[in-house]
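Section 5.1 Outputs to date
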Amino acid sequence: MSVPLTLLGLLEREPSHGYDLKRDYDTFFGRGKPLSFGQVYATLGRLARDGKVVISDVEPGEGPDRKRYVITDAGATEVDAWLTEPVEPEPHLQTVLFAKVVLSLMLGRSAEDYLDLQRSAHLHRMQALTDIKRGGNLVDAMLADHGLFHLEADLHWIETTVARLDALTKEVRNA
């Protein structure tokens, strides 16, 4: 997730204070990983330095003055380019899961035991996502679906790998 570009996108929607940006980010994009206020304001500072946002007005607040941020043409151009570029297809071929299986085999440890533990962890996470999906709104359900589909693919890979462990063990140890 690109925090700077996401904040720029929120600013393209409407000029906002840092507090409002944090709230909107956390509501739509920060599930399980909300932004800290420090990260919001540090990011806004860099965006201002780089000419992608400007401060339109400053209002007195209970603490520091409240600054309203507005996206510039340069910031809007960057958001537009970002929204039209495809995301790099995932997953990458060298994942941690794959590395742990191969290293287990190289070191004479049980890759099957590791894969059983991983399967259990995946199933536990899938249950949690299913609960979120049942109790949440449409945004929650769509995010849960995304995670569930990726976990289902991992489970399929785990089952395929378990079925091929003997052959993979020979190939890894003969390399």
